[in-house]
Design brief:
globular, alpha/beta, Rossmann fold, 11 helices
């Protein structure tokens, strides 16, 4: 039998006082690593699900209960959530995988398992980390939470599976589950190189002189980049101040690729000008790259979805999160310098 506790909001400027543990997925991921210390600082007990406990680095004696497994296993999810009052679902498959089933197990099935357990066990509040990629098909030059979410075309398996997971969370919210959706933009920050942290990857390439000074379409593509520490704080604020069923974009500054590359280049002392090429020349190269990767069982150097994304608008507004959650954005120059110094 499903039941849902009445949603409640925490006092705006203080954490909830509760003896109940917190449920957390994605603790070894880019944002999870940054959220965990914030939760531990509040003195909360935390239940975490991890595939490989050896990847989890926490202070000795931290009030963590570790459940070994993955969120694709509904039994593990339910056991980890039992006794918890609040939850954060951050886990997702972001890195490139050859098998689409890996994305589906983590991003769709895993999210369904978390939502179903939250409904069954009566979790009082759940923050689900979606992504701005769900808005990819909206043509607006500056997008906010009113942007169109559609499955008209997908940029790849990550986009497809996060889209369907987002719909699942929205459906459960409509059924009464107090789930708050957050949509981080392109995250970056120090010391954690991953597929998601492209800014750090570019910083490393500049430091080692590995950057070809060519940009697609004169570098006009605009990206919204969000500092990881800001996003972690925003997720915590969403738990305290967010409304069930609402969504909040957690982003940063909107910058053209040219401006972003020039700023990184300035930090590296590389001020050579960039030349331009049309993205059209990349499409056949991406198709060839994907074909070779399939034959050799390796990772493609270039994907067609990435090429298509270069012609889409990726500027976003975080004004709603600022107004309703008190979300703040670290100045880009300060955040970029910290990221560059760690590269």
């Amino acid at each position: 039998m499903r039941h849902v506790r009445q949603a409640r909001q925490h006092p705006l400027d203080s954490p909830a006082v509760s003896d109940a543990p917190i449920f957390l997925t994605g603790v070894t991921g880019f944002i999870g690593k940054r959220l965990l210390p914030l939760l531990l600082a509040e003195g909360r007990r935390i239940h975490v699900i991890v595939r490989d406990p050896a990847r989890l680095h926490v202070p000795e004696g931290a009030p963590l209960r570790i459940f070994s497994g993955d969120i694709g296993d509904s039994g593990v999810v339910r056991r980890a959530m039992e006794g918890c009052e609040e939850g954060y679902h951050l886990a997702a498959m972001v890195q490139h995988r050859k098998d689409p089933a890996e994305y589906e197990r983590s991003n769709i099935l895993g999210t369904r398992n978390v939502l179903a357990a939250a409904m069954e066990l009566g979790l009082s509040r759940l923050v689900y980390s979606s992504s701005i990629i769900v808005y990819a098909n909206d043509p607006s030059s500056l997008k906010d939470e009113t942007a169109r979410i559609s499955g008209d075309a997908f940029l790849g398996d990550y986009h497809r599976t996060k889209y369907y997971a987002h719909l699942e969370a929205a459906r459960c919210a409509a059924e009464g589950l107090p789930v708050i959706l957050v949509m981080p933009s392109s995250v970056y920050g120090p010391c954690d190189l991953s597929d998601a942290n492209r800014v750090l990857a570019w910083c490393r390439r500049f430091k080692h002189g590995w950057v070809p000074h060519w940009l697609p379409n004169e570098g006009r593509l605009v990206l919204n980049v969000a500092y990881g520490e800001d996003v972690a704080q925003g997720i915590l604020l969403a738990m305290r101040r967010g409304e069930g069923g609402e969504g909040y974009i957690l982003g940063g500054e909107n910058l053209s690729i040219r401006e972003l590359m020039e700023r990184i280049g300035n930090l590296a002392g590389d001020t050579r000008p960039f030349r331009s090429f049309p993205t059209g020349v990349l499409e056949p190269l991406a198709a060839l790259s994907e074909g070779l990767a399939k034959l050799t069982g390796t990772r493609p150097l270039l994907r067609r979805g990435l090429v298509r994304s270069m012609n889409l608008p990726w500027a976003f507004s975080s004004d709603k999160a600022r107004r309703q959650l008190g979300y703040t954005i670290t100045p880009f120059e300060k955040a970029l310098r910290a990221t560059f110094e760690s590269a």
